[in-house]
UniProtKB/TrEMBL annotation:
Signal sequence extent: none
Record-linked Pfam families: Aa_trans
Subcellular location: Membrane
Keyword line: Amino-acid transport, Membrane, Transmembrane, Transmembrane helix, Transport
TM stretches of this protein: 25-49, 69-85, 91-111
Domain Amino acid transporter transmembrane: 1-143
Protein name per UniProt: Amino acid transporter transmembrane domain-containing protein
The organism of origin for this protein: Aegilops tauschii subsp. strangulata (Goatgrass)
Annotated Gene Ontology cellular component terms: membrane
GO biological-process terms attached to the record: amino acid transport
Length: 145
């Protein structure tokens, strides 16, 4: 490893690399990734908050964006207050990643489809039939040539 020993005392690996256009592009791409990930990660919080305040069915993007500010501002505040929390982030991540990736979605699926009626009217049956019909069309089209 070129910078392995230096990373023991520096948590930012990109700061150790020589300043090149490739490193700068990597930093910009990581920032874009962070903004997109923040949006994806906060979407469930937005939905719950909008349902709580009664704006979930609102079609106005401006109202929904304004309603999301009470969710975003505390998260930004915590990010500014604790900008470098590598050890804390590692500990929390190692404890919660499997919970948030595997357990919560499985529980949400079981709760959502706990009744027979919910399982009957699910979109997955429609999606499966559309997907299966596409497969049938494409496989029959490919077999004719």
């Amino acid at each position: 490893w070129a910078f392995g020993d230096e990373l023991l005392t520096h948590s930012n690996a990109l700061s150790l690399l020589p300043r090149t256009p490739f490193r700068d592009a990597a930093v910009v791409l990581m920032l874009v990734h962070q903004f997109i990930t923040f949006g994806f990660a906060c979407t469930p919080l937005y939905f719950v908050w909008e349902k709580l305040i009664g704006l979930h069915d609102c079609r106005s993007l401006c109202k929904r964006a304004a309603a999301r500010l009470p969710v975003v501002v505390p998260i930004w505040f915590l990010a500014i207050v604790f900008p470098f929390f590598g050890p804390i982030n590692s500990a929390v991540g190692s404890l919660l990643v499997s919970f948030t990736v595997y357990i919560i979605p499985a529980l949400a699926h079981m709760i959502t489809y706990r009744s027979a009626h919910a399982r009957e009217v699910t979109i997955t049956t429609v999606f499966f039939s559309i997907q299966f019909s596409h497969f049938t069309v494409f496989s029959s089209a490919s077999s004719t040539h």
